[in-house]
Amino acid sequence: KTYFIEKSDPHNITLIRNTVENVLYSVEHHEDYFYILTNEDNCVNFKLMKALVNDFDYWEDVFPYNSNHYLTGLSPLNDFILIHMRIEGKPNIGIMINNEVTLMEFDDPNYEIDLIYENAYESETVLLKYQSLITPKTTFRYNCISGEKTLIHEVIIPEYNKDNYEMEYIYVTATDGSEIPVSILKSVENTSLIETVPMNRT
Q1: In the chain, where do the E strands start and end?
Q2: Are the beta carbons of 94 and 128 closer than 8 angstroms?
Q3: What pTM, to 2 d.p., does this model score?
């Protein structure tokens, strides 16, 4: 259950919605709306809905449900809302402005990202930690309006040259038919190994 309290009346605690069997939801407030992540309507990977603060009994869809998108959290800022998600297993962050969602773009086929919260609620930028099999730990500032990335810091690995390697992100079929994502790292000077060595499926 989630409750909210009006600043003008801190003794009045209001329940947003009663418990429904097998239905999960989490709520964030942004301007005149509550934004809700929920698995309602059998959306096992969660969908995004919203409700007016002064009429929160009616929930409407905001971000259409996609079974390949696993929504994990929301970060409201002044001019936009960040939607944390995984897309086909890969982490990403969607930037929602006026109910339109744009995904952050990154160079590598697969990677890990972590959002570092900045203190300025009104800021257009956030700090991100980023790394992949070929990119060392990197911190950069991401402008959520323009999409521009500014490098802040990168871990230097002696004698390492990123250009000497290639990375692929593929899917292999398991014995039960499931598609399993696999990241592959290979040298650009010797690609024969990946073609001749079999991959074990367990």
Answers
A1: 3-6, 9-15, 25-30, 33-38, 47-52, 55-63, 69-76, 81-87, 90-97, 100-103, 112-116, 125-131, 138-143, 149-154, 165-173, 179-187
A2: no
A3: 0.86
The DSSP output letter for 78 is: S
pLDDT digits (tens, 9 = 90+) for 23-48: 999 999 999 999 999 999 999 999 99
Residue 187 has phi, psi (to 5 degrees) of: -80, 140
Instruction: Give the whole-angstrom CA distance, residue 123 versus residue 77.
Output: 8
Ramachandran angles phi, psi of 112, nearest 5°: -125, 140
Rounded Cα distance, 26 and 18, in Å: 13
* Mean pLDDT (whole number) for 109-116: 91
State the pLDDT confidence band at 99, using cuts at 50, 70 and 90.
confident
> Using an 8 Å Cβ cutoff, are 89 and 181 in contact?
yes
Residue carrying structure tokens 């800022």: 77
Give the separation between CA 199 and CA 91, rounded to whole angstroms.
25
Q: How far apart are the first and last CA of the chain?
A: 41
Cα gap 108→168, rounded to integer Å: 9
